[in-house]
Amino acid sequence: MEKVSNIVDQNGDPIRLKELSKEIATASMTGIRQVWNTDTIASGLTPQRLAQILHNANQGDAYDFLTLAEEMEEAEPHYGSVLGTRKRAIEGIAPSVEAASEDKVDIEMAETVSKLVKHESFSELVQNCVDGLGKGYAVSEIIWRRGQMWWPNQYKWRDPRFFQFPQDNAFELRLRDEKDMVNGLSLEPYKFVVHIPRLKSGIPIRGGLARLAAITYMCKQFTITDWMAFAEVFGMPIRIGKHGANATESDIATLINAVANIGTDAAAVIPDSMKIEFEDGRKSGSNDTFERLAKYLDKQISKAVIGQTMTTDDGSSQAQANVHNDVRLDILESDLKQLGSTVNRDVIKPFIDLNFGVQEFYPIVKFELPEAEDRDTLIKALEVLLPHGFRVGQSAVRTKLGIPEPKEGEDLFVAIDRQSEAPVPDPAMNHQKPCGCSTCQTKAINAEQGVVTVDDDLDELEQEAMQEWQPQIDPVVDPIVKLLSESKDYDDFLRQLPGMADQVDGNKLILTLAEQLFKARGVGDVG
C-alpha cells in the first residue's frame, strides 16, 4: 500500500510521499512530451498565421505560441536583450528570510529556510521562474531528497509546452499526457513550482510579454527582409552601357553581356566606341527609411518589456541613465513581489510542512530592492547635530554608510586638526585610567605630594565644568532635536533652523563658560 501523509493538498487529498522523489514531467524520444522539438513558427510568419496562433492560444491550444515565444528570444537580438535585462535584474536581488515571530520555533524554521535559499540550486530556480515573463508561465519540478529532512535536491526546468490549460478552466495548469489528451493530468502537489507573472488581468496565457511583442516582432522581420532586398538592389552602383548610333545588333549584344557580367567578373571587353558608366544607386531611393522603422519598432519593444527606452535605444548620458534605470523600478518591484509569492507558496510551505508540520504562520522569503541611502545628507546632518550634543550609535551610522567595524589591531585613519596639524584625540580614549606613561606618573606624584601645577589646575577646572554639562546643554540642544524630529527632510530642517534663536536658552551655558574662562585666565596669570 502506498504511503500517504497526513498533510493534504489544496483539494483535501493526502500528499503521496513516494511521488516526491520521482521525476514526473519527464520527456521521451516519442510521445506527447518529446526531448527534441524541431517545430518552427517564426520562419515565414505572416499576419494571418500570427492571428491564428494567438487565437488558438486564447482557446487553450498554446503550443505554437510557446514555440514562437521561444524563437523570438533566439531570433530577435533586441527582444532577447531587453527581456534578458529584465530577467537579470530579478536574478540579481538576493533573497532574505523573515521569521513568522520571535518564538524559538519560528526562528529555528527561518534559519533552516535561510540555508535553503542560500543553496546554489535556489538561484537556478529563480532563473527558471523568470522564464515565465515572456511565455506567460514557467514550471520547475522539485526533486526531493529524503535524509534527516525532506530537502529539495534539484529544481528541474520543464518545457512550458509540456503543460496545458484544460478546456473548462483557463487558470489551472495541467501536465500534457497521453492518458488525457484533452485536459491533461493534475499536477502532483508539493512537486511543481508554477510561476505565473501577473503582468495584466485575465487568463495567464494572454499575459506573456511575447504576446505583447509578437506583432512588433513580425513587422521588424518584414522590415529587415525588405531592407536587405533594398540594399541588394540599390546598394550596388547602377551600370549603364552607352553605344553609338551606328552600333549593330551584335555590338549591342556585346555591350549588354559586358554590363551584365561586370558586376560579378569585375571585368569586361567592349569596343572603343562604347562606354559603361556607374551611377550611385543610393540616390534612387531613401536609404534610411528601413533603419528608422527598425529603430522605432525596437523602441516599442523596449517600452513593452522594461518600461522605458533611454538606456537601451537613445544613447543616453550617464546622468540620464542614473535617472532611468535599466528596468523601471515599479516594474522590477512588482516582479520581485510576485516571485516571492510563488516561492513562498510552492517551495517554502511544502518544505516547512514536510519537516515541521503544518503551521498557522510560515517564514517568508522576500526579494526586496535595497534602499538607496542619501549619504551626503546623512553626513551633513551629523556635522550639524553632533557638536550640539546629539547622540547617535556608531553601528547605525556604519550600517547606513556601509562601513564595517574595524578589526582588532587594524590600522585606523586618524583625524588631523587643521590648525595644529596634530592628530585629534580619539573620543574612545576619554575617561580612561592613567596609562602609566611618565606624564601621568608625574601628575600622580605631584598630587600625592600636594604640588599643584597649572596643568593640574586646568584639569580640575575641566572636571568641574563637566560635572553638570548635561543641564547646561539641554536648553540649547532640546529645541533643535525637537525641530529635527518634526522636520520633513534635511532642507526643511535648515529652513527652520535660523528661527530657533528665540527658543534656545543659552544663558546658563554662557554664564558657566564665562566663569570657567575667568578662572582659567586667573590660573594662567598666576602660573
**How many distinct helices?**
20
User: What is the average per-residue confidence, as pLDDT, rounded to a whole number?
Assistant: 80
Query: Helix fraction?
Result: 40-55%
Q: What percentage of amino acids are in beta strands?
A: 5-15%
The figure for the number of domains is: 4
Largest sheet: 3 strands, antiparallel
Low-confidence stretches: 316-324, 429-440
What's the gyration radius in Å? 38 Å
Give the overall shape, derived from the CA principal axes. flat
N/C terminus separation: 102 Å
Query: How many DSSP-defined strands?
Result: 12
**How are strands sequenced across the largest beta sheet?**
5-4-9
Structural class: mainly alpha
In short, what is this structure?
The chain is mostly helical and 527 residues long. The chain has helices spanning 17-20, 47-58, 63-75, 77-91, 104-118, 120-130, 132-135, 209-234, 249-265, 289-306, 310-313, 318-323, 329-356, 375-385, 394-401, 438-449, 454-466, 469-486, 490-496, 507-526, and strands spanning 4-8, 14-16, 96-98, 138-146, 150-158, 163-164, 174-177, 180-185, 192-195, 238-242, 275-279, 364-366.
